[in-house]
């Protein structure tokens, strides 16, 4: 059994943190949908006549997209965490080709995480702007304590959306750190593989030709 290196421990910690962020983001957004009867309130609008009512909402697929991206990223992090623990204890180092493939995969996940985080940010701003425009409350956070038309139970919609957005951006940061970690490891492996070859070439050039 090999001893876990500092870089591997850092990578495992990043995978664990990214896993938690993905689960939190997907869960918070799903709970918000449940508060509004399964409707997606991102980019939605409300009207206020003594009680708040959701007048328009986005397609449910939009919230499903954000939640699915976060959940898939969390699953990938969990699998990578298990593989990292296994390789750390049994001393199996990944090949350079595997590292490059992982970098491409992480870059693709980063792209979709960025889109998801932007959807949450802009969609939440649009919904809160509608709440403020309705004059139901001086802030979007206070609007969650106002009465809503049944069957809506929006007692924590702002807190849940804020949690989902914060988790999405923190998750994006952790994935950036993972990409940087893979890049550093790939560079180190490349340099370590080239160094012996360059040494051999230098030795062969200095070896005298006899005869």
Keyword list:
211 residues, mainly alpha, two-stranded antiparallel ribbon, 5 helices, 73% helix, 8% strand, disordered C terminus
Reconstruct the topology from this structure.
Layout: H1 6-35, E1 40-48, E2 52-58, H2 60-90, H3 96-133, H4 140-143, H5 157-206
Structure description:
It is built from 5 helices and 2 strands. Mean pLDDT is 84; it is low at 197-211. The relative contact order is 0.17. The chain has a two-stranded antiparallel sheet with strand order 1-2. Helix 1 runs antiparallel to helix 2. It is mostly helical and 211 residues long. It has helices at 6-35, 60-90, 96-133, 140-143, 157-206, and strands at 40-48, 52-58.
Give a quick precis of the structure.
The protein is mainly alpha-helical. It contains 5 helices and 2 strands.
Largest sheet: 2 strands, antiparallel
What is the terminal-to-terminal distance?
51 Å
The ordered string of helix (H) and strand (E) elements is HEEHHHH
Strand content: 5-15%
Percent range for helical residues?
over 70%
Radius of gyration, rounded? 25 Å
């Amino acid at each position: 059994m090999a001893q876990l290196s500092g870089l591997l421990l850092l990578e495992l910690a990043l995978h664990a943190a990214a896993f938690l962020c993905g689960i939190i983001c997907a869960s918070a957004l799903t709970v918000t949908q449940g508060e509004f009867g399964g409707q997606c309130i991102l980019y939605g609008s409300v009207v206020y006549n003594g009680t708040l009512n959701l007048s328009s909402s986005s397609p449910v697929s939009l919230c499903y997209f954000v939640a699915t991206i976060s959940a898939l990223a969390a699953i990938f992090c969990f699998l990578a965490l298990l593989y990292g623990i296994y390789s750390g204890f049994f001393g199996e180092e990944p090949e350079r080709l595997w590292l490059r493939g992982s970098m491409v995969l992480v870059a693709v996940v980063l792209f979709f995480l960025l889109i998801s985080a932007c959807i949450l940010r802009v969609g939440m701003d649009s919904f809160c702007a509608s709440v403020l425009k309705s004059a139901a409350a001086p802030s979007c956070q206070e609007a969650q304590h106002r009465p809503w038309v049944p069957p809506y139970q929006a007692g924590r919609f702002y807190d849940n959306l804020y949690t989902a957005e914060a988790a999405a951006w923190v998750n994006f940061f952790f994935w950036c750190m993972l990409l940087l970690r893979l890049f550093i490891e790939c560079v180190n492996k490349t340099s370590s593989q080239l160094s012996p070859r360059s040494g051999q070439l230098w030795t062969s050039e200095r070896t005298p030709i006899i005869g």
